[in-house]
Design goal:
Number of domains: 2
Shape: rod-shaped
Helix content: 55-70%
CATH superfamily of the largest domain: Histidine kinase-like ATPase, C-terminal domain
Strand order of the largest sheet: 2-4-5-7-6
Strand content: 5-15%
Largest sheet: 5 strands, mixed
Length: 387
């Protein structure tokens, strides 16, 4: 039979409670040592000016210190009551004044008579000084109570802020983990489609050894790119180079020539972008362009930077197949938009515009957001690839 959950918390709760108790009693010793010194220096002169010099006041000081220490310990328990701790400022002050006043009443009712019994030689002097002694007790307990409430309130606020900070950090870490997990899932949806098409391409050219060699070489290069890809940003030219190998594989699969052009500016090629950015658009262009092009399939890929935004356009011959790439479970535009959103690229857009015998799929990304996201990705540990 398992232990109650409270037992599992004992190793952490007990040391913390012991630490707080030790801190409290250390503060008690420091605080009440000041009145002890004051009483030693001033009690005889200010409260008992007519006390004979041969009468020691050390026992009186010891009794009064024991009383105020005990009184402050009782007040502490009162201030720790949850209902009292939750009071606003004005009611809290009222409770403190009332509690200290109640404790001070013990001076004439209990402490002074008890001291007179213990120290009979001081009995007549105590009766004349009872008002001063009571006032001193009230003052000392008020100062102690206000200090205690201030310090404990400061500790509670600091602890609450620390807990809130830890909670925010845990929420941020959880969100980052969820984003990484979903990015991995969305990115890995792309690869099975390519592998299926690649196997089809190898089968299609199985009677031509040179074609098989070329296709498998391109397949190896593209798979190397896919396996090296994580959720981190990388320069755009890496994917553009991989796209060239992708087109070789698809050309063998379609068993027809594909006219393809890739134009990109140097600034665009070195810009860090999320992985698998252009591939899904090229896959869609190949799949639906080959189906709807009246003649030879043509694909043009243009990448450049205009007005602080990276613009990547994939134009293919053919006609737009309505909602074909946004079907449930697909790896088209909805997948790509979601990955860009998870990557933190605020302001990114993915659009498709049918034209006269062509379809243009365009991605635009703010350059500043790409650089910031890439810098943020470098500051976090890399995600391990699933095995």
């Amino acid at each position: 039979m398992g232990l109650h959950p409270a037992f599992h918390r004992l190793p952490t709760v007990a040391p913390e409670r012991a630490r707080r108790e030790a801190l409290f009693w250390a503060a008690q010793a420091v605080f009440w040592s000041i009145p002890a010194i004051g009483m030693t220096l001033l009690l005889r002169r200010e409260v008992f000016p007519d006390l004979p010099a041969d009468v020691s006041i050390a026992p009186l000081i010891a009794i009064r210190l024991a009383f105020v220490v005990a009184a402050s310990t009782v007040l502490r328990e009162l201030y720790r009551v949850p209902a009292v701790r939750r009071l606003p400022a004005v009611p809290t002050v009222a409770v403190i004044v009332a509690a200290c006043g109640g404790m001070a009443l013990l001076e004439p009712l209990l402490v002074t008579p008890a001291t007179a019994v213990i120290l009979p030689q001081m009995a007549p002097y105590l009766q004349r000084a009872v008002v001063k002694l009571t006032f001193n007790v009230v003052s000392a307990l008020l100062i102690w109570s206000l200090g205690y409430r201030f310090l404990t309130g400061f500790v509670v606020i600091s602890r609450s802020e620390n807990l809130a900070r830890q909670s925010r950090q845990r929420a941020s870490d959880l969100e980052l983990a969820l984003r990484s997990s979903e990015l991995a899932r969305l990115g890995e949806q792309v690869q099975p489609h390519f592998l299926f098409n690649a196997l089809t391409a190898v089968v299609a050219c199985r009677h031509d050894p040179d074609a098989v060699s070329e296709v498998t070489g391109s397949l190896a290069e593209y798979l190397r790119f896919c396996l090296a890809t994580t959720d981190r940003h990388a320069p755009l030219d890496r994917e553009l180079d991989a796209i060239e190998h992708l087109l070789v594989v698809h050309q063998a699969r379609l068993q027809s020539a594909i006219e393809c052009r890739i134009d990109s500016t140097p600034e665009a090629r070195v810009l860090p972008v999320p992985p698998m950015l252009v591939g899904p658009l090229v896959e869609n262009a190949l799949k639906y362009g080959a189906r709807t092009s009246p003649a030879q399939l043509t694909i043009a890929i243009d990448a450049g930077i205009e007005d602080g935004r990276l613009r990547i356009a994939v134009v293919n011959s053919g006609t737009w197949v309505d909602r074909a790439t946004d079907r449930p479970g697909g790896t088209g535009l909805a997948n790509l938009r979601r990955r860009l959103d998870l990557a933190g690229l605020t302001g990114a857009t993915v659009t498709v515009a049918p034209g006269d015998g062509t379809v243009t799929a365009e991605i635009t990304l703010p350059v500043a957001a790409c650089l910031a996201a890439a810098e943020g990705a470098r500051s976090t540990p890399p995600r391990e690839r699933p095995r």
